[in-house]
Amino acid sequence: MQQKAKPKTGKMMYDISCLIILGITLIFLIMAILYSFGIDINWHGPATAILLAVGGTLTGIGGFMGKPAKNWAKNIGKWAMHFGLAVMLIGFAVFGISGDTVSANVPVGSDTYYANIQKENGEVCNLGFNFRITDFSIDYHEDGTEKMYRAGIEFADAVSLRVDSDELAVNDTVVKNGWRIYLMSYSGDTVNLMFRHDPGEYAVNTGMWMTIAGTILSLLVGNIIPVKKEDER
């Protein structure tokens, strides 16, 4: 019996999917090149957020257009990669719309509590909590070189007057009222802190792990599992 010609729809959708992903990749590559040349890009502006959201949506749609895989691992991996990228890009977009990052030089050992941080553009950001830096210390290696910076941070509730203490260290952050606090550097009697409010953080992390899992399934597990041959008629 003569075999019927296979429809070209699947290949066409697969090609469209590849073009969509290639287009999104080129957009971010151009943005990265512009940024590397010192060209000012408003990463937190609505235009960037819309671009990221659209890119995430198109990447998710690309999953529907992809050519069906020939085993379960490659198939699940393909979906996980597409939707992982989509969730991650949408998470970046959420940060672009409602996230914020501010930094401040704060004196060590002062009795004054701070709640408002002035941005570079002159705007004042209210963190929603009161804090002060109580102390600062440096851990040293055996050869005398600096190993780790540590700073004690204290929070005071303006209503209940409750005081909570915590410790900041390089690469060891503290989260308060949705703000992640980073210890950046130390100079004289002041520390430089960065405050980051990122409501899309969990989406970015979830998308990242989905993409990693999908890549492992598709490229590693999928290539180990034998491919099912199509029935010959």
What share of residues is helical?
40-55%
Could you give the order of the helices and strands?
Answer: HHHEEEEEEEEH
Instruction: For the largest sheet, list the strands in their spatial order.
Output: 1-8-7-6
Q: How many domains is the backbone divided into?
A: 2
Strand content: 25-35%
Uncertain stretches of 5 or more adjacent residues: none
Structural class: alpha+beta
Number of strands: 8
**Gyration radius, rounded:** 25 Å
Summed up, the helix count is 4
Q: What is the end-to-end distance?
A: 7 Å
Q: How would a crystallographer describe the biggest sheet?
A: 4 strands, antiparallel
Silhouette:
elongated
- The average pLDDT value, as a whole number, equals 76
Give a summary of the structure in a few sentences.
This protein is α+β, with helices and mostly antiparallel strands. The chain is built from 4 helices and 8 strands.
Search tags:
about 230 residues; alpha+beta; 2 domains; four-stranded antiparallel sheet; 4 helices; 8 strands
Report on the structure:
- It is a single chain.
- The chain is of the alpha+beta class and 233 residues long.
- The chain has two domains: 116 residues; 93 residues, no CATH class.
- The protein is 42% helix and 29% strand.
- It has four helices and eight strands.
- A four-stranded antiparallel sheet has the order 1-8-7-6.
- Helix 3 runs antiparallel to helix 4.
- The chain is elongated.
- The relative contact order is 0.16.
- The mean pLDDT is 76.
